[in-house]
Amino acid sequence: MYKKLVAADKDLYTRNGMLNMLDRNRRIKDHPERFQESNIVFDLVITCEERIYDHVVEDMERRSSALARPTHILNIDIADNHEDAMLGAILICEICEMLRDSDDLDDDIERVIQEIEAENDRSLLHTVAFY
User: Fold this and answer.
1) Residue 19: its pLDDT value, please?
2) What is the mean pLDDT of the chain?
3) Across the beta sheet with 44-47, what order do the strands follow?
4) What does the pLDDT average to over 4-30?
C-alpha cells in the first residue's frame, strides 16, 4: 500500500500524514495479522471501531469454550486520521496501565471504564466472552 500511495501522489500522502502512518506501521508489524486465526488466549482485546468490535465478539462466541476463561473486549471508537490515532493511542495506554495496576481485572474493569468515560466524555463498549 505504501508503494502504491508513493506512486500515486507522494506529496499529497506525505502532507496528509498517511505515508508517515503507514511507515510507522511497517516498523511495528512484520505483516498483517488476522485475529481470527490466532490461538493466543487473551485477557483483554481492544478494538478501535465498532464494526471490528462486533466481528471480534462474534468470533469469540464461535470459539470453543473449553478453557472457560473470561476475555474482556473493549471498543474505543477512534477516527481514522493521524491526530485522532495519536490521541486514541494515549487513551488506550492509559486504560492498559490502569488495568495492569489493578488487583483483579475482572473486578476492576467496570470502574476503569467508568473513569475513562467520565474523564474523556466518550462511551466505551464492553463485553466479556468465555473461551
Assistant:
1) 86
2) 90
3) 44-47, 70-75, 125-130
4) 85
